[in-house]
Each structure stands twice: as C-alpha cells, then as structure tokens.
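RECORD TYPE: inverse folding
INPUT: structure tokens
STRUCTURE:
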C-alpha cells in the first residue's frame, strides 16, 4: 500500500467564506474517523479569507477511493452555489527525504 496525501483547495464566492467554513466543519464531523484517514486539517488562507485548504493523509489509494465514493461528499455538489470555482483536488505522494 502506498500512502497518499490529498490537498483540496476551495474558493468561496466573495463574502461567503464564513458559510463555507460552517459547511466544512459540519462535513468534518460527519466524516471524522474515515477508514484509512490518518490525519485531517482544514485551513484558511491569511491573504484571502474566502480560500480554504483541506489536507488529508491516507494509508492507501484504496482508502481515498472508498472515501471519494462516500455519499457525505455530495456536500461539494450541494454547495456549488457558494464556490467561486470548482474545488481543486491534488493527489500527492511523498518524496524520499534526504538528510
């Protein structure tokens, strides 16, 4: 199994950042303990309070695939009216660390 990190960038429409933040908090509580997710963080950009970055660490690509098919993630579609653009999702693998 290969560990995977996902980074999701969500940009709210101007002035709707607080509503997106509330929605993200609700989603996080509903998906807390997702199988294979070892870490979750949500952050807001300092220079633009309408930009959010979600970082999730997963034990495998299979766990990510399972999570992506979770009906709870339909939230992204249900809240499209809050977004300035479609969320950008990056799937990352770790590079070897050099001393």
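DESIGNED SEQUENCE:
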């Amino acid at each position: 199994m290969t560990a995977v990190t996902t980074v999701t960038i969500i940009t709210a429409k101007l002035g709707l950042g607080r509503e997106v933040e509330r929605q993200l908090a609700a989603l996080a509580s509903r998906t807390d303990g997702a199988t294979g997710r070892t870490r979750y963080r949500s952050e807001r950009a300092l220079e633009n309070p309408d930009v959010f970055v979600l970082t999730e660490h997963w034990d495998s690509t299979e766990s990510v695939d399972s999570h992506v098919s979770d009906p709870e993630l339909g939230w992204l579609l249900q809240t499209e009216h809050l977004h300035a653009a479609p969320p950008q999702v990056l799937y990352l693998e770790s590079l070897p660390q050099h001393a």
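NOTES: The chain is about 25% helix and 30% strand.
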